[in-house]
Structures are given as C-alpha cells and as structure tokens.
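Sorry, any thoughts here?
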Amino acid sequence: MTVTKIMIVVALMAGLVWMAGLGIKSIPIKYVRSEGVFQYLSKDEIQAVLQPLVMTGFFDADMQAIHQAVSELIWVDSVTVKRVWPDAIDIKIYEKKPYVRWGQQSLITVRGEIITPKHIDQFKNMPILQGPEQQQAKTLEIMKGVNIALADQSLKMAEFTINDRWAWKIKLTTGLEILLGRNEQLKKLQRFLKTLEVLGQEHVERIAIVDLRYPNGYAVSWKPGTKEIDWKKIANPQHEIDG
C-alpha cells in the first residue's frame, strides 16, 4: 500500500513537470483570494500591487515577488502566499495594530514599529508618545508602566514625552501636566498619586501643572482664576470640623 502511494505521488509530480514542459504552465490565474481581518488596509491597495503580478500563467506567477509586494504595504504585518491548483493564488495577510501616536504624523504599532500612514486623522484620539530618536521601543515600554500607575487612579494619559535628556512629562486627558524630571520618576509619580485623595477631586481639577522634580515634595501651578488654596484645611480637615 505504501509503495503504491509513493508511485502515485511521483507520477503526479512527473505529470506536472511534463505539462509545464508542453506549455500548460501558461494556464491563466482565475482567482486571487486575499484573507484577513482588515481595519486599516483596503482591498484596493492590495489589488493595485497584485494586478501586474498575476496577469500571467499559474506556473509563471512569481510567489516571491507577490510576497514582497504585499509585505511592503504599510499596514501589512505578515503575509503568506501559495498556489492552489489549478488556477488560484491564496494570500493570507495579518494587519499591523496601532498602539499610540508617535509625534504628530506617525504611529507606533504594538510591536514597537514606527509607521506613517497617509491619513492620521482617524487616530487623533490615541495618546501621543514622543521620545528620543531611535528609542521608540524603550519609550513605549516606559509609557506602558506609567499608564498602569495612572489607571489605578482612573486617570487617562493624553501625551507622554521623554526629551533628549530623558526627562519625563505627562499630560492627562483632563489637561493636567505632570513634570517628572530625570530621576526616580515612577517613585515620584506614585507619591503624587497617593496625595490625590487628600487634595480632593475639586482641588485636583484646579491644577494646571504639578512639578515633581523635587526630592521631598512638589510644586503646583493653578489654573487661571483659581482662588487661593488653604493648605492647612487640606492637610488637616479634622481641624476645620473641630473648630
């Protein structure tokens, strides 16, 4: 039984080679099937790069050229290409997933790759990340850690910036800016977040900028029109009740 199967396979392969030698390799491609879940990649883009490469015979089609052409599309993460006898080519595509904006015109994918799509407006609600050149992967990992700390206080980040001197700055969706400097940034951030309950939501909403670049405390800049704050009442609310 095993010998018979091997002979059939060999005969089939020999038949394909024979057909190719007779010119049957020019059998036209009738179907090009692309498979994938596309949120940002359009089928028109795929068709445009495939069109000149599939106007040939089934055996003549260059699988490597097709693979490369599709892979070079900005939203393609990975792709597989194969012939399906007798007249089809199947293409399986996995799309890149954007994670945050990188500056004003680009995006960073979940893999840490920078891409610059033609249209950025649809991503305007994503947080903006800015960091030193060629350091997007490290900057992204730091941002993820900061996001975890903020999420514990139900705060959302709008922008996160690391400058060339590796000083951090956070801007929340509420507009509050947090300056963290270059040293012990996460420690200082955690210390500030623990004081939010003491400050109270009303006072937190009045803060424009909080400067955490101090070893044992922080400075606050209030939004315009904010009345003078009675820090004694904030520090010792029980005193007001007893009085």
The longest helix spans residues 2-21. Residues 1-16, 239-243 have pLDDT under 50 and may be disordered. The chain has two domains: 27-95, 98-242. The first strand starts at residue 31 and ends at 35.
